[in-house]
Amino acid sequence: MSFLRPLWVAMQLLTRLPAPQSGAADAVAAGRSLLCYPLVGLLIGAILAAADRLLAPYFPPLLLAALLLALWVALTGALHLDGLADSADGWLGGFGDRERTLAIMHDSRSGSAAIVAVALVLLLKFSALTAIAGTQHWRELLLVPMLGRALLPLLFLTTPCARPDGMAASLAIHLPRRAAWLVVALSLLLVVLAAPSGIKLAAIGLLVFIALRQMMLARISGMTGDTAGALVELVETAALIMLAACLY
């Protein structure tokens, strides 16, 4: 297997960025691609930080924040927002029942909870970006997408899959666990060291991770691809809110 194959698989799944096409990913490459999720997040962050630096002299803060958020969604193809939407529908409509929650999350249709959850997350991200965009905190903007995706391998390492036959279960089987622990540790260390607010970023990310993991275990006895997507969105949102609050 090519050393870069897992990276291309991760890029194809997590972004709409062009990546070499090498046919359908086999299970082993898909599992190993989890190791590359933080790197893909760092790439997304680099594009956002570069756009912020380039556009800041030409646009007012509100419009700049809107442009950055639109770019953010476009880069990811709203993949994690879709997971957030399905999770919100499942949590609201499942009434505490595991099987009902999983069934609703598996349904591709979006209900009122999905619409409200996505709207609130986008509103919160936009509001936080108005305080951050165009400032000297481009390093934090660079790191926030990586933080959200660095916690995905940690979720797979520490949380059982709610659906044994789901895509998440296949990824977990083929995830190199020792390498994954190292990737998570190095990613969090990079967040801590690379920005003035790095310690706060890592702390808020881990707090959100712990809270959401407990919710997953309590409701569906594990995680799914949808709840993993929700984790990314909520970690990013909490990190941006924390940064904006520190600047206030």
Structural account:
The chain is mainly alpha-helical and 248 residues long. It has one domain. The chain has helices at residues 5-14, 27-33, 37-55, 61-76, 79-93, 98-106, 112-132, 138-158, 167-173, 177-194, 198-220, 225-247. Helix 4 packs across helix 7, helix 8 runs antiparallel to helix 12 and helix 11 packs antiparallel against helix 12.
Short description:
With 248 residues, the chain is an all-alpha fold.
Q: What are the salient characteristics of this protein?
A:
mainly alpha; 12 helices; 248 residues
Could you outline the blueprint of secondary structure elements for this entry?
Blueprint: H1 5-14, H2 27-33, H3 37-55, H4 61-76, H5 79-93, H6 98-106, H7 112-132, H8 138-158, H9 167-173, H10 177-194, H11 198-220, H12 225-247
Helix pairs in contact: 1-2, 2-9, 3-4, 3-8, 4-7, 5-6, 5-7, 5-12, 7-12, 8-10, 8-11, 8-12, 10-11, 11-12
DSSP summary, beta strand count: 0
H and E order: HHHHHHHHHHHH
Unreliable residue stretches = none
Structural class: mainly alpha
How many DSSP H or I helices? 12
Determine the fraction of residues in helical runs and give it as a percent range: over 70%
Strand content: under 5%
The shape, in one word, is globular
How many whole angstroms does the radius of gyration measure?
Answer: 17 Å
**Distance between the terminal alpha carbons, to the nearest Å?**
49 Å
Task: Give the oligomeric state of the chains in this entry, treating copies of one chain as homo and distinct chains as hetero.
Answer: single chain
Q: Domain count, please report it.
A: 1
Average pLDDT over all residues? 93
Please outline the major beta sheet: none
